[in-house]
């Protein structure tokens, strides 16, 4: 139950963080705000549901500091990684019309370049959108999860 409810709440928290950032910097005048909400929710939800079992496995029967580090690292990498992946999939679907036929060498190079470009652009432009709410929340949630995992 904690996987599903926690994933939904973590995804909503990531959306809230993105919306606060957008409101502070652009007054929510972003053309693709609904899509951004979906991307950040998906990244948060997937990041939680994949990272939590891994953090539990790493932190089980270990010191509190190890459990805290496992939770913080897992949630951070999981959330950022899955959100970047969602952005990369969106980029790939947009640029697919100009790419070569599937499974050719040129197509593979184009796929890798598009994916790396999308991930880089997300890290440069998307990462600051987590700072208003998500970073402080990461600390609080990681402390709570470190106590919960024993």
Structure overview:
The protein contains five helices and no strands. It has 150 residues and is mainly alpha-helical. It has one domain. Helix 1 crosses helix 2 and helix 3 crosses helix 4. The radius of gyration is 17 Å and the shape is globular. The protein starts with a helix and ends with a helix. The chain crosses the membrane at residues 38-58, 70-89, 101-123, 130-149. Keywords: Membrane, Transmembrane, Transmembrane helix.
Q: Which parts are unreliable, with pLDDT below 50 for 5 consecutive residues or more?
A: none
Q: Into which percent range does the helicity of residues fall?
A: over 70%
Total number of strands: 0
User: Please, how many domains?
Assistant: 1
- How far the N terminus sits from the C terminus, by CA atoms, comes to 18 Å
The helix-and-strand class reads: mainly alpha
Sheet-strand content, in percent, reads under 5%
Q: Provide a count of the helices.
A: 5
* Cα gyration radius (Å): 17 Å
Global shape: globular
Order of helices and strands: HHHHH
Arithmetic mean pLDDT: 93
Main sheet: strands, sense, barrel? none
């Amino acid at each position: 139950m904690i996987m599903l409810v926690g994933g939904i709440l973590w995804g909503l928290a990531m959306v809230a963080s993105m919306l606060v950032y957008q409101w502070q910097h652009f007054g929510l005048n972003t053309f693709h705000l609904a899509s951004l909400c979906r991307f950040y929710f998906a990244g948060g939800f997937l990041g939680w549901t994949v990272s939590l079992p891994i953090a539990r496995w790493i932190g089980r029967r270990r010191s509190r500091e190890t459990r805290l580090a496992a939770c913080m690292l897992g949630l951070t990498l999981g959330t950022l990684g899955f959100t970047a992946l969602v952005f990369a999939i969106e980029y790939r679907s947009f640029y697919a019309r100009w790419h070569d036929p599937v499974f050719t060498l040129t197509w593979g190079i184009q796929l890798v370049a598009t994916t790396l470009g999308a991930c880089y652009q997300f890290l440069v432009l998307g990462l600051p959108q987590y700072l208003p709410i998500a970073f402080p929340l990461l600390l609080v949630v990681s402390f709570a999860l470190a106590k919960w995992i024993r």
